[in-house]
Records
---
Amino acid sequence: MKKVFRDPAGLRQRLDAGRAAGKTVGFVPTMGALHAGHLSLIRAAAAENDLTVVSIFVNPKQFGPEEDFEAYPRDWERDVELAEGAGADLIYMPSAEAMYPPGFATTVEVEGLTDVLCGAPTSRGAAHFRGVTTVVCKLLNAAGPDRAYFGQKDAQQVAVIKRMVRDLDLPVEIRVMPTVREPDGLAMSSRNGYLSAEERRLAVAISKALRGAEDSLLADADIEAALAAARSVLTDAGIEPEYLEARDPETLAPVTELGERPVLIAVAAPVGPARLIDNIVFEPIAAAQQKSPAMQGGSPR
Ligand code: AMP
C-alpha cells in the first residue's frame, strides 16, 4: 500500500479511512535529517497510536534570510527508511508548492511567547515562530492526529505550540518527549553535523553548563548564581551564548527567584558554523524531595 504522501488531500483521505476503521493517529513533524532524537518521538507515537505519521518538510518560512535553509541536510531515502524502522506507517513529504501554493496569504501567530529567547530580535526573531506555527497548524490540519509528538530540546517551540493548540481549540494532545543526548551530553541535533572535530569537542560545554546550573540550583536555589555558573563553563570553552536565561517553561516569563514552579534554563550559542540550543527544566519540588528523602517521603538517590 502507498506509504509516502505528497499533498494534504491524499494524506487526509488515507487517514480518514484509518479513522473510520477506529484507528488512532499519532503524528511526528520533522525537518528530516533524522537522528535518535527524532526516532524516540516516532517510537513513542508508534507505541501509543494505531497509525503513526511522520512528516518531513524543511520549512522555508521558519528560516531567516541569513540562515541555513539551503545548507540544511537533506537525505529523503535514508529518512524514510529510518522513520519506517522506528515504526512510522505513513510519511508525509509535501513539496514547497503543495504546502505554500501560489497566493498563499495566511499566517498563524502566537503573540508574546514568540518575541523572547529564540524569537528575540537579537536572535532568530519572531518571524521564525510565525513560520513554525503556520506550518505546524497546516500539518495538524492535514494529519488530524489524536496525538502529536515534540521534543523538549525545543522548549520554546513546545510552549508556543501548546498555546496555539489551546487558543485555537485544535483537537490534538501534545506529547513532549525528553531530549536525547550523545553519550557525552551534547543534545542531538541535525546541525551537529556542521561541527568540525574540534568544535564538536567544545560543544559539550553547552550541556555541561546546564548541568552546572542544575547543580548550583540544587546547592543554593539561587537563579543568578546558577546562570553565572553556567556562563563560566561556556566562557571557559570560549563560547559566548546568544542567550542564557531562566524562564517559566509555560509562559516564558523571566524568573529571577526560585519558587515552587519549574524553571526553564535555556541556552542558545554559536559553535563554529552551527547555532546550537539546549535547555533543562529544574523542578524545585522534586529537587527538595531528593535532597531530604526522609522528611519528604521520597526515595534516596
Ligand atoms: P526538527 O527536525 O529539528 O524540526 O525536529 C523535529 C522534532 O524533533 C522536534 O519536535 C524537535 O524538538 C525534536 N527533536 C530534535 N532534536 C531532539 C533531541 N535531541 N531529542 C528529542 N527530540 C528532539
---
Amino acid sequence: MRVKDPDIKYLFEPQAIAVIGASHNPNKIGYRIVANILNGEYPGQVYPINPKGGEILGLRVYQSIEEITEEIDVAVIAIPAKIVFEAVKKCAKNGVKFAVIITSGFSEIGNTEEENKLVAYAREHNMRILGPNIFGIYSNKASLNATFGPSDIPPGNIAIISQSGALGIALIGKTKAANMGLSAIISVGNKSDLAEEELLEYLVSDERTKAIMMYIEGIKDGETLDTTLQMATKKKPIVVVKSGRSKRGAIAAASHTGSLAGADEIFSDIMTQCGVLRAESIQEALNWCQVLSTSPLPAGDNCVIITNGGGIGVLATDACEKYGVPLYNDIETMQNIFTEVVPDFGSVKNPIDITGQATFQDYGRTLKAALSSEAIHSIICLGCEVAGFDPELFSTTIETLFSAHKLDKPMVFSFVGGPKIEESIYCLKARGIPIFINVYEAVSTFGALYAHHRNLREYAETGARTSIIEQEIESGTINDILNQVKQKNRQFLLAYEAKELMQAAKIPMPVSSIAQNLDEVVKAARKIGYPVVMKVVSKDIIHKSDVGGVALDLENTDEVIDAYQAIIQNCRSHMPNAIIEGVEVAEMVQVGIETIIGARRDQTFGPIVAFGLGGIYVEVMKDVSFRALPIDRKEAIAMVKQIKSYPLLLGVRGEPQKDIGSVVDTILKLGAILERCESISDIEINPLMVYAQGKGVKAVDVRILLST
Ligand code: COA
C-alpha cells in the first residue's frame, strides 16, 4: 500500500491499465472500453479482468486483478454496483493508483452510503476514485481512450471536464463536427472523490491543452475550486457552462442577501472574480474554446470591424458593447490606414465600411491594411451576400489571409447570405477558420478573448488575490463581545452588542443610548437631539415592529413620553413573557441612498461578501454583487460598480456624488470581521445609508448571527 496519494499525472498518463468487467460480449460497456483502448493505440499494458477468463480482442483475460503482479496505474471498473466495492478493495490492495468507476447506481439514485463506503476504503489505501457514474477518460498525451464513447476522438488542444456523462459523449461528437480536436475529456459524474480541482492541476500544466471547458451541475467544495481556478485561469483560459441552481445553497442561506440572489448569481460572480469565462450554452462555450485555443491574444484594445454592409456593422457594434470588445476610436489613424483602400463613399470610421460593391480584392486589401498596422490589435471581418458577391472567391481570400496571418493578431469572421455562403462558412469552419453565420456569435468569441486578456493583464499588474488590506478593526474587542454572547448561549447579537461590535470596527452607527425608565429616556432624547427614534430592547423580541416596539420621528419630549409608554404597553400585551431590558433611543437617521452589505459563510463557497441596493424595492430589484473572500480594495470597488444602480451612487440629476469610498471601506471591514472572527456565520448591515461625498455612511440596522 502507498503512504501518500498518487500523482494525478498517472490518471492521464498511465503505464498500465486494467478493465474490470471486460466483457466478451461486444454489446457491453466493458467490451467497448477494451476495444476503444486498443483502437486508440494505447502503448501501455492493458489487462482485461473477468472471472470467466479466456481472451478478448486478442488479449489474455485475467480472472482477478490479484493475478497481476505488475504495477497498475488505472483500473476502469464496469461491473454492476453491488459488486463494485469488492473490486475497489482488490484494486486498492493491489496498489492500483486510480479507480475509474463507470458504474451507475450510487449517490445519483440515493445510494450514498455505498458510494461513501468505497471512497472511504480507497482513501484509506491512498487510491483515488474518478466517478462513479461516468463514461471514462480520454487523454491524448497517453493515446488513451478509456471511455465507452466514440472510438475515434480527434486529437487537439481543448480539454473538457464534464459532470454529465451523456452530454460529455455528445460533446465528443460536437467537437468532431466542428473540427475541433481534444487534448483530454474527463467525465467526473458523482465526483465522489476526484473533482474538477485536481484535474485542472494536471490540465493547466499539460502543454497540449490550450483551453479548458467545464460543464458543471453542482459544486462539492467551492472554496478549493475558487482557489484552484484563480491560479488556473492565469495559465489557461477556462470556460464554464453551469446548469441547475444549487438548492442546497439557497435553502441554507441564512442571510437576507443570499436569499435575494440565489446561488447561481453567487456562482457567476465568483467565476468572474476567478477569471473564468461563463458561457450561456454549450455551443457558445465551444465557439469560445475554438477561438481561445487557436488565436493569439490581442496586443491591445484597438479592435476594428471591416464590413461591406452598414447594417451588419451596426449589429456588430452593438455586440461589441454587449460582450466588452473595445472598438478603436482614433479616426485620424484609421483614415491614414484605410483611406487608400476604402472608396470615397465608404467609411473609414469604425466600422470600416468598404460598401456593398466591394470585391474580394477590396476585402483582401482592407484586411491586409489592418493586419499590417501596429495600431490595430484585432479584426472582426463581416460580409453580406450582395449582388456580385462570389462566395468561392471570398472563401479563398479569407483562407489565404487567415492562414498567413493567424498568429499575428486575432481575427474573426461572419458572413450572412444564402445557401452558397452557408456552405462556404461550413467549409471554412472545417478548416479551422473562426467564421460564424451569426454576427453576435462571432463577436462573443472576441468578448471571451478580451475578457481573458484583461484577466491576464490585471494579474500581471496586481499579482494574485491577496489577503484583505489591514482594516482598522479591533478583532480582540470583537471576539470578546462574541465570547460573551456565546457564554449566554445565544446565537445572535442584541442591538447594543452589535453596536459595540460596529464601534470596534469603526463603522458609524446612529448615536443612541439605552434607557431603563421614562426619566432616562427623556434625558437621552434631549442629549441626542430631536428628532429621535425609539426601539424596545429585549432578547425575546426579534421582530420589534411587529409588536409595536418601535417609534419613529419623535420631535419633542411629549412625543417621546407617549411613545415610551406605548412601546412598553404594546410589548407587554403582545409578548407578556418577554423580558424588557430597556428602550433604545437613537438619532433619527437622515435619508441617503439605502444599500445592503452582508458577509457570510456560504455553504458552497465559504466566506463571501455581498453588496446591493437596499430600500423597499430590494426584493424586486435583486441588484446585488457577490465576491469570495478575501478581497482587496480594487475588487470591492468592482463590486460597487457592478450593481445596476451604481449611477445612483454617482449622483443623478445634479445630485452630488455619494461617499463611495466609505461604502468600499465598509465592505472591506465586514469581510475582515468575517475572516477574523470564526464564530460569526452571518453579518448584515441593512440599510447602510450612504451620504454625499465626504459625509460618510451610517449602518442603521445590523444583524449578526453566530455559527451553530
Ligand atoms: N470482476 C470482473 N468482471 C466481472 C466481475 C468481477 N468481479 N463480475 C462479473 N464480471 C463480468 C461479467 O461476467 C460480464 O462479463 P461477460 O459479459 O463476459 O459475462 C461483465 O463483467 C459485465 O458484467 P454484467 O453483469 O454483464 O454487467 P453489465 O455489463 O450489464 O453492466 C455496467 C455493468 C457497469 C455497465 C452497469 O452496471 C452500469 O452501471 N451501466 C450504466 C453505466 C453508465 O451509464 N455510466 C454513466 C455513463 S455517463
